[in-house]
Write a structure and sequence with these properties.
transmembrane; mainly alpha; Spore_III_AC/AD; transmembrane helix
């Protein structure tokens, strides 16, 4: 049911922003940012559950904590980057949005390198 509430909140925010764009276009961006922050605030409960689940997985399986923290960082980078990029696109700054997306992709690639190297070492050990 949460998805219905969030979706309705988003649609109402878009319609309000659309109405404001005709009379006061500077307020339309503020409405979009405000709705986005409210939705992100409502997602905190889901994020808390995600962290609890990752903690349980880490306790149950012999997984290095570095890999779990890397995974959490990657997810955080993608969500924050997508949020910031969407706001920039909505404000009409597509070039800035594209640069944010590019930087986020590069950041995820940099974070994934130690995991990739560990995977390659493991494969190499099996082949010897």
């Amino acid at each position: 049911m949460d998805i219905i509430k969030i979706s309705l909140l988003g649609v109402c925010g878009v319609m309000l922003g659309f109405l404001m764009k005709g009379t006061k276009p500077e307020y339309a961006c503020f409405i979009t940012v405000g709705i986005g922050l409210v939705i992100m605030g409502l997602a905190v409960g889901k994020i808390r559950y995600l962290f609890e689940s990752l903690g349980k997985i880490q306790e149950a399986l012999p997984v290095d904590t570095e890999y779990i923290s890397t995974l959490v960082k990657m997810v955080g980078i993608t969500y924050i980057g997508q949020f910031a990029s969407g706001i920039c696109k909505d404000a009409g700054y597509s070039t800035t949005a594209a640069q944010i997306e590019l930087f986020c992709k590069l950041s995820v690639m940099v974070l994934s390198m130690p995991v990739l190297m560990a995977l390659l070492r493991t494969i190499q050990e099996f082949m010897v």
